[in-house]
């Protein structure tokens, strides 16, 4: 096994000089190391053991109550020119950010241990993989990074004597708002995060590296880093087709990636490649290829049960860290939407007594599980394929009670990119500081994760299309449309396969469609709905396009896209004019 090279050693020394830890521990990712850290955490009550029969090898972690979700208002892109961060990112000048972070970090690890974590994002041997090195004083971060990344000394081999690693600096400091910064320096490939040890803020391989820094690297190197699940759909007629789907946080990517076919679609099988992040590259064959850079799942717990996601339930049946769920007296975890009814008594996510009469939820709405992908029974045999999987379809979706049909196919790549960029979604609990339930624009579900100006990002998507002679078809889906009675029209979960089957049959030229101003929706009777108790009126309502409503949507969209000024692709202006014409304006 390799050892850290001189560039790594010198950067780690620099970190230690500023942070002044009592000890520096170089992690090797071994099982022995995990056991040692877990024992220490149990002794310090940083982890609570769960019932060993019901949750073998699993623990509960309680966060500080003010540190339970991503903090978008404290997340910054620190590039020299404000315009390069764009109108949707918080920006801070690199010198100013470093001044602030240096002050916050100065001596922050006194009396503590600094762990050095070598890790690789992407399958081993893949030409697309990236090496990162994270320093942290959080044992929770170390044991979580071991699950979420390929952590260990193999990273030193991958790095050789190169300087090409992403520097990931994390210090817990005090979990106070004025100490909290999640700063990205794309020019230097540096991430500097303080004041939080919530997953999305502190497991720096995930959102910070694999999306924000990677999106900026992808722009320079000709690829895309996306907030997408990747899955294979094996059909009873033979063959597996792959798709990637972008939905905002907590909108069901994990559930879709692990879907269990309904009885009526017996013979189909779903293969999970990833549930959150996809790196996409044009291949020499003119197709778009996808890899999942992660090795674990950091999924939303509430609502997960045997009906919504039995595959996830099996995945988290052992060797899982639950963060901020409730704890029952028998030492088992419980959450809202669990298969079991609410317990008569429990401790809530803060560790306080809870009963069904309590007015607050038992588990935090953004409570999470951390589990190795290898435990997923539906894991695709291709999940570690160094080249990834070729995509037939890309889906963009959001959570919209109105306006958006269940599914439509866009007319071509440019229209598809425009449609993805115009996605809006009702806000969920995965980020602090927003009012849950209000709709916000979330282009490609990347609003919180794009490491550069989103106008340039839209142009980059268009340029990727020019490299594809066989591009995936692009679709929009919305599982969350409601009827006049305010109830969901579509059953969702496993039944979503019906929509995927239509999509993949469109890709192979078999399913019929009808043209609407938005795109191609399923022709009557072309969605495979057998065995589903859904009235014709409900299907009609699910697929309806209300031109008057869309004229309003288009006006809002024009206003939104104007914020990108001259960085907005001119193709988007043409798309909006074409949509206006189709809507009869
Ligand atoms: C996540 C998120 O944790 O999107 O995946 O917030
Ligand atoms: Mn996510």
Question: Short description, anyone?
Answer:
The protein is 28% helix and 22% strand. With 585 residues, the chain is an alpha/beta fold.
* Overall pLDDT level: 96
- By CATH reckoning, the class of the largest domain would read Alpha Beta
Instruction: Give the total of beta strands.
Output: 31
Ligands in the model, by name, code or SMILES, are: oxalic acid, manganese (II) ion
> What structural class is derived from the secondary structure elements?
alpha/beta
Q: Taking Cα atoms only, what radius of gyration do you get, to the nearest Å? A: 23 Å
Distance between the termini: 66 Å
Features:
585 residues, Phosphoenolpyruvate Carboxykinase, domain 1, Phosphoenolpyruvate Carboxykinase, domain 3, Phosphoenolpyruvate Carboxykinase, domain 2, nine-stranded mixed beta sheet, 16 helices, 22% strand, binds oxalic acid, binds manganese (II) ion
Could you please describe the fold and organization of this structure?
It is a single chain. Helix 2 (31-43) packs antiparallel against helix 5. This protein has 585 residues and is an alpha/beta fold. The radius of gyration is 23 Å and the shape is globular. Strands 1, 4, 5, 6, 7, 8, 9, 10 and 11 form a 9-stranded mixed β-sheet that branches. The protein has 3 domains: 6-47 and 66-221, Phosphoenolpyruvate Carboxykinase, domain 1, CATH 3.40.449; 226-295 and 380-583, Alpha-Beta Complex (Phosphoenolpyruvate Carboxykinase, domain 3); 297-375, Beta Complex (Phosphoenolpyruvate Carboxykinase, domain 2), CATH 2.170.8.10. It contains 16 helices and 31 strands. A hairpin with a 4-residue loop joins strand 10 and strand 11. The mean pLDDT is 96. The N and C termini lie far apart (66 Å). The protein binds oxalic acid and manganese (II) ion. Oxalic acid (OXD) is lined by residues 70, 199-200, 249, 276, 298, 430.
